[in-house]
Amino acid sequence: RGSVKDFPGFDASQDAEALYNAMKGFGSDKEAILDLITSRSNKQRVEICQAYKSQYGKDLIADLKYELTGKFERLIVSLMRPPAYSDAKEIKDAVAGIGTDEKCLIEILASRTNQEIHDLVAAYKDAYERDLEADIVGDTSGHFKKMLVVLLQGTREEDDVVSEDLVEQDAKDLLEAGELKWGTDEAQFIYILGRRSKQHLRLVFDEYLKISGKPIERSIRGELSGDFEKLMLAVVKCVRSTAEYFAERLYKAMKGLGTRDNTLIRIMVSRSEIDMLDIREVFRTKYEKSLYNMIKEDTSGEYKKALLKLCGGDDE
């Protein structure tokens, strides 16, 4: 359900040459770069990087960084990296230096599949020769840290066989760990929300509503706090609907004054080949305007053009 697909009749060495020519001489042909890169799939872009190196003995990403600037550069360079390396770079930026970008950690680790998490951990090691878990543990604390470590294992159950008994038990355990307890047993929340399959958890949430009379989200808001609360709410949202989670993140990134460009770039790049069509559909229904239009009103220049290409169409 992505908006970006393999380009038919793809020729990596031809594309490498076109990009080389677009950057040759004084100033670069940004339009040509943008058109080419946004109409190739990630797999094809990776092949173009290899062709570029074997034809010109240069690193395409380094050349693009040199030629382009600002948000447009960040977006284009992000598109050139394989998804796991793109995630690794985002997380590296989120934990580097003083302070941590918790929202970025939450977004990536709450929404990725087991396989995507395993690929991310390997890419991080390969790119930075560091251990992702160690870096996250060194940069976070408390229950927030514990839940991130659980998610980093990429061991969420994937079986679709759901046991009704276990559904009832989990719902009861969550209720007893929160609402019915003086204080909160966070470990129960971490164990159930970090490990169970999505299919199973959806039924647990239904059962929870039935026995407690309130949605699990409301209990999480009442029982947990800070980044841990935000992370658990993100996990619940992704379990209910990943597309809806990202539609909401995109809306918040653009609504009001100023745009959270890093969030906008990260989501448009990471979802363009996975579920952009679903995100657009949810966005249209939920906010009564199209994602395309909101991007159009909120951004400008080549940056805007590239984002609109990734969006892939207007739903108004």
TrEMBL record:
It holds the Pfam family Annexin. Its main location: membrane. GO terms for cellular component: basolateral plasma membrane; calcium channel complex; cilium; melanosome; mitochondrion; nucleus; vesicle membrane. GO terms for biological process: animal organ development; apoptotic signaling pathway; cell differentiation; mitochondrial calcium ion homeostasis; negative regulation of sequestering of calcium ion; tissue development. SUPFAM superfamilies: Annexin. GO terms for molecular function: calcium channel activity; calcium ion binding; calcium-dependent phospholipid binding; phosphatidylserine binding; phospholipase A2 inhibitor activity. It is found in: Basolateral cell membrane; Cell projection, Cilium; Cytoplasm; Melanosome. PROSITE patterns: ANNEXIN_1 (PS00223), ANNEXIN_2 (PS51897). InterPro entries: Annexin, Annexin_repeat, Annexin_repeat_CS, Annexin_sf, ANX6. Calcium/phospholipid-binding protein which promotes membrane fusion and is involved in exocytosis. This protein regulates phospholipase A2 activity. It seems to bind from two to four calcium ions with high affinity. Belongs to the annexin family. A pair of annexin repeats may form one binding site for calcium and phospholipid. PANTHER family: ANNEXIN, ANNEXIN A6. This is Annexin. It comes from Antrostomus carolinensis (Chuck-will's-widow).
